[in-house]
Design goal:
alpha/beta; six-stranded parallel beta sheet; two-stranded parallel sheet; 9 helices; 10 strands; about 40% helix
């Protein structure tokens, strides 16, 4: 089965492309703008992965209203085309669709009612509803804050501040599950494999790397690894008003993806040494 990846340039886009290439999956990458002039022939024996909104909203504070409206129109058109050609549609989202659930205790599960409060959460929720309503073959995959070895990402920004010799004040209260883009791409590839074999799984699923942590706890681990490659590394401090997870995504329960797809969580700590080394060595050149 061919894969059509709809996404703008991003670490997530690169990780998905790399994973699918390793799996020898024929891959076509296009932007949401390209969808308007897309040749429907590329959808033959294909599956669509829509990562455009997630790639943007992981590092930006929402689409402008006019852009969001435009994205809804283009996504609806793509969904209708996929439905007409019986093409599975995998939409990538994140847990900010739950960020208004202040009374929620424990990790957010797939069957919980979504309640977004942030602009990004509300926009992702609208896209999700569109996928669920307009595509009987639609699958929504939510994740946590994605981390990557690239500037403009929470991991890279933490390291940049540390290497400036400044004390980095971080929130030690809000817990989330940081997820390396390469781990998320592994999961996406596994879902593609099973959907291409006719797996009937549909609806919403969650995947985050295992091990919840506050921004402060995460930075402690990052700092320990970074000290092996660069010196000096600045101190970090716990501060209620300090930097928190960017984006701020609640912790998610990932039981359903294990039950339906057999996909197990891997710890984010296992990915961190190589990622930190890549950032440190890149910054030293």
């Amino acid at each position: 089965m061919n894969v059509v990846l709809v996404s703008r340039p991003s670490p997530l886009n690169d990780a998905i492309g790399s994973q699918l290439t390793q799996r020898e999956r024929p891959l076509v990458v296009m932007s949401m703008d390209d969808v308007q002039t897309m040749d429907v022939k590329i959808l033959r024996d294909a599956i669509v992965i829509d990562g455009d909104a997630l790639a943007y909203l992981q590092c930006h504070n929402g689409f402008a209203d006019d852009v969001h409206a435009q994205m809804l129109v283009r996504r609806r058109s793509l969904l209708q085309t996929c439905l007409a050609h019986d093409v599975p549609y995998l939409f990538l989202s994140d847990g900010r669709v739950f960020d208004g659930c202040l009374a929620h205790t424990g990790d957010c599960a797939e069957h919980d009612d979504i309640e977004p409060a942030s602009l990004e959460g509300k926009q992702l929720a609208e896209y999700e509803r569109l996928v669920m309503a307009d595509a009987g073959q639609g699958v929504v995959l939510r994740t946590g804050p994605l981390i990557a070895s690239r500037e403009g990402n929470f991991l890279g920004d933490c390291l940049a501040t540390m290497r400036e010799g400044k004390v980095l004040a971080l929130n030690d209260a809000l817990m989330s599950c940081p997820t390396p883009v390469s781990d998320f791409a592994r999961v996406i590839s596994g879902i593609v494999d099973q959907l291409s074999c006719g797996a009937p799984c549909r609806g919403a699923y969650h995947y985050c790397s295992s091990g919840s942590a506050s921004a402060y706890e995460f930075a402690e681990v990052v700092c320990a690894f970074a000290s092996q490659f660069v010196t000096p590394v600045a101190d970090i401090a716990a501060d209620e008003a300090g930097v928190t997870w960017q984006p701020s995504v609640p912790a998610l329960s990932c039981n359903q993806i294990l039950q339906d797809f057999g996909i197990k969580q891997l710890p984010w700590r296992a990915y961190l040494p190589r990622m930190v080394r890549a950032v440190c060595e890149g910054g030293s050149k």
